[in-house]
Amino acid sequence: MENTTTQSPNDRQHHGAAPGAGAAAPKTELLLSMYRLMLLIRTTEERLAKVQASGTLPGPVHLSVGQEAVAVGVCAHLTDRDWITSNHRGHGHFLAKSGDLPRMIAEVFGRATGVCGGKGGSMHVADVSKGILGANGIVGGGIALGAGAAWSEQLRGDRNVAVVFFGDGAANQGVLFEALNIAALWKLPLILVCENNGFSEFSPSATVTAGEIWRRAEPFGVPGLAVDGNDVTAVWREAGKAIARARAGEGPTLIEARTYRLRGHVEAEMTFLAKAYRDDAEIEARRALEPLTQTRRQLDLAGIAAATFPALEAEVKAQVDAAFQFADESPWPAVESAYTDMFS
Amino acid sequence: MAKKRMVQAINEGIAEEMARDPSVVLFGEDMEVSPIGDTRNLFERFGPARVRNTPISETVMTGMAVGAAAAGHRVICHLFYGNFIYTGFDAIANQAAKLRYMLGGQVRLPITFMAVIGGGRSVAAQHSDSMHPTLMNLGGVKVVMPGSPGDAKGLIKSSIRDDSPVFFLQAAGRGGESGEVPDGDYLIPLGKANILRPGTNVTVVAIGSMVKPAQRACDELAKAGISAELIDPRCVMPFDFDTVVDSVKRTGRLVIVDEARRTCSAASEIAATVTERTFGTLRAPARRVTVEDVAMPYSPVLEKAVIPDHHRIMEAVRGLMQ
Predict the structure, then answer these.
(1) Contacts of B49 in chain A (CB under 8 A)
(2) Percent of chain B's residues with pLDDT above 90
(3) A336 located within any domain
(4) I want to staple B91 with a disulfide (CB 3.0 to 4.6 A). Which of A329, B63, B78, B209 is the partner?
(5) Separation of alpha carbons B156 and B166, rounded Å
(6) B49 touches chain A (CB under 8 A)
(7) Cβ contact (<8 Å) for B64 and A185?
(8) pLDDT, tens digit (0-9, with 9 covering 90-100), for A115-162
């Protein structure tokens, strides 16, 4: 596990690392727990895909299948007192930050027991008590919110941080550059995690994004690096360094986690798109590199018995079954609730 | 009680709230030198952590205000000219106005967005809009528009203490005007109109910058034997319809004076709602005195023609009295 597939140039990779931060690899128990969490996200989202296909979900779902290592590797370093902001593809971030699975599914189902009472849905799953300031339906919308939360934590001085998860599409919103500028000037405890999943909605990244995203930090004097976003160990290691620096008052970092979106921008997208924007062969080639397979290999090498995994899968499946059953049996919200919560 | 300029009254209100509550922070462009005058000496008094100059970056500022408020601070975000609200509008319309709702009430967003609005100083169309109707339509933000220095102090203090996003929109041309300002902890509840003068023939509702020309119009109308009841709503979202409806039920006539453009102005909404509630007692259709649907011109001659003055208000009232 010493030889990871981090893609950043060596001269930026270890920029400003805080002393003590940045162990090369997580202990085996942690790696196994991260694998379990990735499996939970995967199993949940594959179930959501099925439910969506059956036509019983009220609204759209954007799944992060194939991208789980980014959420899990980063959030392993965070506590409930740290903040995250996320995007429309936010189920994984929510679960990785200890969000409650049954209440998340109930929210996607639009039920009263949903974590937002059924007012937000899939694109707005949030649990503020866990430091989850929300998934967000505006591409790039979480960037400034995260910068604000980081500023608030800096003012309080409790060494808490804010992590913003955003996509390669959001990297083309101007707010990223405003946030990099102010975060650099104010040394905000902010970690900008760009999940480059290869597609800006329905457009391949190369057709809409110039240059390399991690390099966009450089002119602001902010450490930037690219990491293999499908390798949870590499994500965990680089995020650990960035978060330690932020906690030490050393300011922001931009991490470009390179991953691949195995499912569509939104479920059922081929029902309304004029033509495909990628071919199946490409998807299959990338499937071989997906994070669960990679992590499983690392666990095998670390000596985890093969018999561990069927039991783990059964346990996760039971957890997901229970969550969907809870959501399915939950009541719809009272109509009166549509008229509350506009103001405090 | 002492006579003070409006910017001084606002400054006093902010300083009192920052002294009272250490979670209040203020940020915006050029806060230290305070080109408007309303944040003068706050940097020296409260220090660089709580009073912060920002880059000219409204897109991130408005979003940061939401994030910092959600994370527990009480935020004053000074946007300078009101037209820059449009520059930072994404986080205003998509986050500040909706985040609490979308999250099912999980967050409080105590944010005061400050800006100077309106025309009258030859700064042309991109520095002269009155965008309060746009903000009123968002639903999730309050909109405060003080008409006098005393009200400005009481309203800025209530705005800062409010747990929801509030826009505190100061009339750009009025900051230097003096008025009596109560000392100490003076608060005016948001959403409560003020009857500035009682009258029996017509109800005149004047918003923000329009209070002063409306006062002059009412004085001159009184000399001509027309008794106008003048109401300053002080806050257009929420709007104190009860006070206006009660007045119109007595006078039977309504004129609304608003520096916004006519189409979908605050005046339009007030006319519609008050008419719905008083139709049987109205003696004539409500009249709106507004800017026509044009951008604010630069030349003082053109600008004077566009912004409602006491003549146009008197003309509207006289039209209703015939």
Answers:
(1) 155
(2) 98
(3) no
(4) B63
(5) 10
(6) yes
(7) no
(8) 999 999 999 999 999 999 999 999 999 999 999 999 999 999 999 999
